[in-house]
Amino acid sequence: MYCTELTSLKREVDLLRSDLAKSRDVIVKLQQKEQAMIERLSDQARRQLERGNKFENLNMGEQRPTQLIYRYSNLYLQGRVDALDALDKLHEMDDSDDLKSKLVFSVVVVRIVYN
Questions:
Q1: For residues 84 and 100, is the Cβ–Cβ distance under 8 A?
Q2: pLDDT, tens digit, for every residue of 69-111?
Q3: Which of 7, 46, 59, 86 stands the most exposed, by the fewest C-beta atoms within 10 Å?
């Protein structure tokens, strides 16, 4: 009984050692991939800086330039459609496309200021 128990425990220890060795190999491979990714990202960042590209501060949240552009674009698209629909209903404005464009721009600016 003692011998079978000892043999069983030795097998379990061997399996655990084998699993540990496999896990260590996986960790090493992941660390190598991580290092390669870091190097690729730093090379990419360096190239972008050399070309004069600027990075955004992601901590700015809704105030990031790309986010502001996105919000303006959505506001402009929706505001423009709403304003043009309303202006198209006015028969006095049928021949005033230039004036409609200026009014639409004004509506978008007002929506931005008061939004």
A1: yes
A2: 777 677 666 667 777 778 778 888 777 778 887 877 777 777 6
A3: 59
In the prediction, which pLDDT does 27 show? 92
CA angle, 56 as apex, 52 and 62 as ends, to 5°? 150
| Residue 81 near residue 73 (C-beta atoms within 8 A) | no
Q: How far apart are CA 74 and CA 85, in angstroms?
A: 17
54 has a pLDDT exceeding 90: no
Q: d(Cα 115, Cα 113) in Å, to the nearest integer? A: 6
Which whole number is the average pLDDT over 33-56? Answer: 77
Residue tagged 């209903």 (tokens): 89
Indicate the Cα dihedral angle 97, 99, 100, 102, nearest 10°: 130
Q: Residues 7, 8, 10, CA angle at the centre, nearest 5°?
A: 65
Q: pTM here? A: 0.41
> What one-character-per-residue DSSP string does 4-41 give?
HHHHHHHHHHHHHHHHHHHHHHHHHHHHHHHHHHHHHH
